[in-house]
């Protein structure tokens, strides 16, 4: 299995914050091979992995990763971004949502944020920890975050030991600028 640079960077961020993870309720969306979710579970978080309910092979990949890492307590659920389904409705409140390179296609951004917004309604203090590969200077989440009453903080990779040089030297074609964001509800000003 190939692990994308974004998943590695997010896993490094989790490892850097490993002492704060025990007991945290974590959901990884678009989990794929699930490296960030596995790291969170190994650090003591109560983790649920999810990928598209329309892509059963992705859900199977999550299950295989859990089996290889001896994590039978971690659940896998099918969630399709932007769709309200029984599994989404049944999810308990989460403290952290993980998303590694889900902001891949601009036409999916709104659906992803719709799903995240729904989850934030269950716990307004939840944070979305996300990494993504910059693919175009024209793509921006800022307007959508404003629309959904969210804000983001850009986290410098060097602040948690991620090495930009290792990412740049990846075997993948093209440039490999990875960004780390923490997204949360915007605070309302008092009147």
TrEMBL record:
A single Gene Ontology CC term: cytoplasm
Residue runs in coiled coils: none
Main location: cytoplasm
Location relative to the cell: Cytoplasm; Nucleus
Catalytic activity: L-arginyl-[protein] + 2 S-adenosyl-L-methionine = N(omega),N(omega)-dimethyl-L-arginyl-[protein] + 2 S-adenosyl-L-homocysteine + 2 H(+)
GO BP terms, alphabetized: chromatin organization; methylation; regulation of gene expression
InterPro entries documented for this protein: Methyltransf_16, SAM-dependent_MTases_sf
UniProt KW keywords: Acetylation, Chromatin regulator, Cytoplasm, Developmental protein, Methyltransferase, Nucleus, S-adenosyl-L-methionine, Transferase
Enzyme Commission numbers on file: 2.1.1.319
One Pfam family hit: Methyltransf_16
Gene Ontology molecular functions: protein-arginine omega-N asymmetric methyltransferase activity
Subunit structure: Interacts with HSPA5, HSP90B1, TUBULIN, UGGT1 and UGGT2. Interacts with TET3. Interacts with STPG4.
Family of this protein: Belongs to the methyltransferase superfamily. METTL23 family.
Free-text function comment from the UniProt entry: Histone methyltransferase that dimethylates histone H3 at 'Arg-17', forming asymmetric dimethylarginine (H3R17me2a), leading to activate transcription via chromatin remodeling. Maternal factor involved in epigenetic chromatin reprogramming of the paternal genome in the zygote: mediates H3R17me2a, promoting histone H3.3 incorporation in the male pronucleus, leading to TET3 recruitment and subsequent DNA demethylation.
Name the record gives this protein: Histone-arginine methyltransferase METTL23
Species whose genome carries this gene: Acinonyx jubatus
Lineage start: Eukaryota, Metazoa, Chordata, Craniata, Vertebrata
């Amino acid at each position: 299995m190939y692990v994308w640079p974004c998943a590695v960077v997010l896993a490094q961020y989790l490892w850097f914050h490993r002492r704060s993870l025990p007991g945290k309720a974590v959901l990884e969306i678009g989990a794929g091979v699930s490296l960030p979710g596995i790291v969170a579970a190994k650090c003591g978080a109560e983790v649920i992995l999810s990928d598209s309910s329309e892509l059963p092979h992705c859900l199977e990949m999550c299950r295989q990763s859990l089996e290889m890492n001896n994590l039978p307590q971690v659940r896998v659920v099918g969630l399709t971004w932007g769709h309200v389904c029984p599994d989404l409705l049944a999810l308990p409140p989460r403290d952290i949502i993980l998303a590694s390179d889900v902001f891949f296609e601009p036409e999916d951004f709104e659906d992803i944020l719709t799903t995240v917004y729904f989850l934030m309604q269950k716990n307004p203090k939840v944070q979305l920890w996300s990494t993504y590969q910059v693919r175009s200077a024209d793509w921006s989440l800022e307007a959508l975050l404003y629309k959904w009453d969210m804000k983001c903080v850009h986290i410098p990779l060097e602040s948690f030991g991620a090495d930009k040089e290792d990412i740049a030297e990846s075997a993948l074609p093209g440039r490999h600028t990875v960004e780390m964001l923490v997204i949360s509800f915007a605070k309302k000003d008092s009147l």
